[in-house]
Amino acid sequence: MRTQKRDKRPVDEPLDVVLIGGGIMSATLGVLLQELEPSWSIKLIERLDSLAVESSGPWNNAGTGHSALCELNYSPQTADGSVDITKAVGVNEQFQLSRQLWSFLVENGRIPDPDKFIHTVPHMSFVWGEKNVDYLRKRYEALKDHPLFPGMEFSTDPEVIKGWAPLLLEGRTSKSLANEPIAATWTNAGTDVDFGSLTSILTKTLVDKGADLESGSEVTDLHQTTDGFWHVYGRNASGKYHLRSRFVFVGAGGYALPLLQKASIREIRGFGGFPVSGEFLRTSKPELVAQHKAKAYGKAAVGAPPMSVPHLDTRYVEGDTHLMFGPYAGWSPRFLKSGSLTDLFLSVRPHNLLPMVRAGLSNMDLTVYLVKQLLASPKTKFKDLQDFFPAADRNDWERITAGQRVQVIRPDGVLQFGTEVITAEDGTIAGLLGASPGASTAPGIMLNLLQRCFPERWDSWQPQLKTMIPASGADMVADPELASETFARTDQALNLG
Questions:
Q1: Angle of helix 24-36 relative to helix 455-468, nearest 10 degrees?
Q2: Rg of the chain, C-alpha, whole Å
Q3: Cis peptide before 310, with omega less than 30 degrees from 0?
Q4: pLDDT of 374-398, one tens digit each?
Q5: pLDDT tens digit string along 215-226?
Q6: CB 58 within 8 Å of CB 51
Q7: pLDDT for 62 beyond 70
Q8: Residue 121 to residue 314: CA distance in whole angstroms
Q9: Which long-range contacts (CB under 8 A, 24 or more apart) does 395-398 make?
Q10: What confidence tier does 3 reach under pLDDT thresholds 50, 70, 90?
Q11: Which NCBIfam families has this protein been placed in (predicted)?
Q12: 3-class SS of residue 77
């Protein structure tokens, strides 16, 4: 649905903020700025006719509250056999900031009903084979007493695991369990988040409080003039347009890279992008959904990117409950699902060609993995689901296309899995590159962006930021009491049992 709220500023007066891209990142930054600077004029521009239908959509790989409770790629095993939980702790801390901001917005009426976007769902890690069982036990030992991972349980007992998630044991025989041991961790502190719904909720409250939203409007170019203002050019149903703004945020998913390149800021030089697509299997069959109330994550295949860690998920979307399994990796040169086949090729510049070549040569295992996934038959792909749920029936599952992800290639040729905030030296423009766990940690990412882009205002913003996100700047790892208080407050505000 095309939504327009026309700007009432004088024609020659520049905007304070232009947000490019109608996803969770722009919505989150817009709400933060609106709370910190209520008088600022904000305009959000979305290329498509609807919000959050790319990376933020619930079926586009952004449907879990990434808090590292179950995602094993955030706690790798080191060469000496120990498990490094540094990344897991960092992701969890970031997600607690998200919960706090959402709680503040609920308490202040900007989010009328948290049940529209967030639900309690147990998070599980599930593995098989002696080596993986040993790894999961070590991971559990490293996390079980941590203040950000309370109540985590571990078991190798099939009956206990069956009690947590019956589908995982359905079809496993005593003989198979004797030959291949299994293990799982379980915690009821996990959530399922519909970031598409949350984006719509936040954007509505942005507009209600005076922001201008224009969908069906594509930004085609932008540049900065000597007076410091950014000139944003685009086209919509009425034709071409031109805006001026003091600050621009590019939260356009995969299109952030080409737009930042068009802005010609020095900080984007050397950066490239590698697009990865994917598919999921989905079922809404009531008897299956009823037997799996959890997000169960396994271990990624060798060479697989972190976004390809297999998982069998409970999903709440538009009031209905589903199960989704995947992802199955694929490849397309598009930077968005609705993008162009020329996206990758047009993003290549003299300054990023060498880093992209280096990234390709040093990630041959990823290339091999993607080729295997592309060549795999539907029967072979379904076998991956049967590793989790041996009794799965192909007739119960449908295939859906996941969102496009553009992995960051850094100027040093490193293929980076995660997110990268790019800010101009003068702080007047910023953009976000990369993928998971982006949506779940959007408030933390945006706080970092605000500090970098508005250093002269950062100190004066602290009282309001502490009201919105009490633990921002605090160390919950070193303060178990603060962690416990944060969990209790946000559980209550967000109706999480």
A1: 100
A2: 23
A3: no
A4: 888 889 889 999 999 999 999 999 9
A5: 999 999 999 999
A6: no
A7: no
A8: 7
A9: 396/283, 396/285, 396/288, 397/281, 397/282, 397/283, 397/325, 398/281, 398/282, 398/283
A10: very low
A11: mal_quin_oxido (TIGR01320), PRK05257.1-4 (NF003605), PRK05257.2-1 (NF003606), PRK05257.3-1 (NF003610), PRK05257.3-2 (NF003611)
A12: strand
What is the rounded CA–CA span in Å between residue 308 and residue 144? 26
Q: How far apart are the first and last CA of the chain?
A: 35
Domains and CATH numbers, the chain: 15-468 (3.50.50.60)
Cβ neighbours of 310 (radius 10 Å):
20
Q: Cα(71)–Cα(75) distance, rounded to whole angstroms?
A: 8
pLDDT value, residue 306: 60
Specify the pTM.
0.94
Token reading at 307: 């976004």
Residue 150, preceding bond cis, omega within 30 degrees?
Answer: no
Q: Which pair of structure tokens corresponds to residue 141?
A: 């030992």
Q: Beta 405-409 vs 295-297: how paired, if at all?
A: unpaired
* CB-based contact 397:381 (threshold 8 Å): no
* More confident of the two residues 489 and 371: 489
How far is residue 178's CA from residue 278's CA, in Å, rounded to a whole number? 34
Tokens of 93: 């801390």
DSSP per position, 175-198: HHHHHS-EEEEEETT-EEE-HHHH
For residues 262 and 194, what is the distance between their CA atoms, to the nearest angstrom?
32
SS3 at position 318:
coil
SS3 for 402? Answer: coil
Res. 2: pLDDT tops 50: no
CA pair distance 172, 18, nearest whole angstrom: 54
Residue found by looking up tokens 């509250």 in the block: 65
474, exposed or middle or buried, with CB in 10 Å at 0-12, 13-18, 19+?
Answer: middle
Contact 439, 55 (CB under 8 A): yes
The number of residues making up the chain comes to 497
Which residue is it, tokens 């510049």? 349
Element (H, E) at 433: strand 429-434
- Token pair, residue 105, equals 């917005």
